[in-house]
Write a structure and sequence with these properties.
This protein is mainly β. It has helices at residues 8-23, 58-63, 339-347; strands at residues 75-92, 104-107, 113-124, 131-146, 157-172, 177-191, 197-198, 201-216, 220-227, 230-239, 247-253, 255-266, 271-281, 295-305, 310-319, 330-331, 334-335, 356-368, 371-387, 391-408. It has one domain (8-408): Outer membrane protein transport protein (OMPP1/FadL/TodX) (Porin), CATH 2.40.160. The protein is built from 3 helices and 20 strands. It is elongated and about 65 Å long.
């Protein structure tokens, strides 16, 4: 049995974790709307986020279907993260006088961002039923654009980052059926998207998630989960034009459901195939209910075990365009100066319209004794969108990431 100790390597790991957290910025590009899901997790990232039924890293279980935590025996600690680089372009062909915006065409100056993926999972064998607990710090959502260098934009910029501190527990009810739950404690930071005097503020909110995982035979898993909405209130965030008092801005993440299936019976058990279907109910999310519509997502992933130490992964994600083309003149409780053209202009700052995402990944076991490495990379095909008659936006992105997982008391888990 290995004893968990914080030697030099342990302290170095903690230092890297803090650096990842401090460097975290707005993530935009591979997300569904603004929701990252599991697209930046160490192993699932190579499978386009596919992870509902049989996640290949325990962080993906905590963040989606917590019941799948029971697939991990012993003690596991992961430190990792992803880097995202997006290219967003905005063309405004007519002025929006009440926002002070004139025609312009420019590329967003928002730099690339780092998103953390850090956590621990522990099997508890002293309880009446087999139980696994987990704790994670992950980047849950984000977006960011900035055109402040273009005078005609009148300082247009937006920023949103949501970090989740997520304790989780899963219980194996029978040899085949597991039940799990996660409580998300969200810490969010935002400015914009309203053109005016906006300040960076933060807010806190809770979110709950539950999941089921069922094993059919020796090589097939079914999974499902539900997550509630998460509503943040950013106090005194913006002062709109021609108004003196600051206004609160409500921003939320949507309630969502996901189902998945995975099978590892092919090629003598070396090939794992998995598929997920997700639905993000953006009409339940504050602010985005005025900009987005409900969104379906399909995730497909494959993992091939080339040897006892090497696995390769590929994935494809298909996401519906969430932008709502029937916007009104309000975003939440705020009447937007300039009416529908102004709302279309603000909507462009969250225009993650891309449908197709491709990823690949590599896993190496025991790069050091008891330590596994997972890496991934992905890209999103460029897409563009016309919003109203005068606003045109386009977006493309790529991302890379990695994770190191320490396995203490490894006893044959995944």
């Amino acid at each position: 049995m290995m004893r968990v100790m914080l030697g030099k390597r342990g302290w170095c790991g903690l230092a890297v974790a803090l650096l990842l957290l401090l460097a975290a910025g707005p993530a935009r590009g591979q997300s569904y709307g603004i929701d990252l899901r599991n697209t930046l997790m160490p192993a699932s990232g190579g499978m386009a986020g596919t992870s509902v039924a049989a996640p290949q890293d325990f962080l993906s279980a905590i963040n989606a279907n917590p019941a799948a935590l029971t697939q991990y025996e012993g003690t596991h600690f992961t430190i990792g993260g992803g880097f995202i680089e997006a290219t967003a372009n905005l063309t405004q062909t007519a002025p929006v006088p009440l926002l002070g915006v004139q025609p312009f065409s420019a590329k967003s100056s928002t730099p690339g961002a780092i998103v953390p993926a850090i956590g621990v999972a522990q099997e508890l064998d002293q309880l009446p039923l087999p139980t696994t607990v987990g704790l994670a710090l992950v980047g849950a959502a984000g977006a960011g654009t900035s055109y402040v260098g273009v005078p005609a934009s009148n300082g247009t910029s937006s920023y949103l980052l949501v970090l989740e501190f997520a304790p989780s527990v899963a219980v194996e009810l029978t040899d085949r059926l597991s039940l799990g739950g996660t409580l998300f404690l969200g810490d969010a930071y935002a400015s914009g998207p309203f053109v005016g005097r906006s300040t960076m503020t933060n807010a806190y909110a809770l979110r709950g998630g539950v999941g089921l995982d069922y094993r059919i035979g020796d090589a097939t898993w079914l999974g499902a989960y539900y997550q509630s909405t998460q509503a943040f209130r950013f106090q005194d965030q913006v002062v709109l034009f021609q108004q003196a008092a600051p206004r609160d801005v409500n921003i939320g993440l949507p309630q969502q459901v996901g189902i998945g299936i995975a099978n590892a019976s092919l090629l003598d058990g070396r090939l794992l195939l998995a598929a997920d279907a997700l639905y993000l109910d953006w009409e339940s999310a504050a602010l985005f209910q005025s900009l987005y519509q409900g969104q379906w997502v399909m995730q497909l992933g494959a993992q091939y075990r080339a040897s006892d130490r090497v696995v390769t992964r590929v994935g494809y994600g298909l996401a519906g365009n969430p932008l709502d083309h029937t916007v009104g003149t309000r975003i939440g409780p705020i009447d937007v100066p300039g009416g529908i053209p102004a709302v279309n202009y603000l909507q462009s700052q969250y225009a993650v319209v891309n449908q197709h995402r491709f990823t690949a990944g590599l896993g190496l076991a025991d790069v050091l004794p008891g330590i596994d490495f997972d890496g991934f990379a992905g890209g999103m095909f460029p897409e563009s969108e016309q919003l109203g008659a005068t606003t045109f936006t386009s977006l493309a992105s790529w991302w890379i990431g990695l994770g190191f997982t320490w396995h203490y008391d490894r006893v044959g888990g995944r």
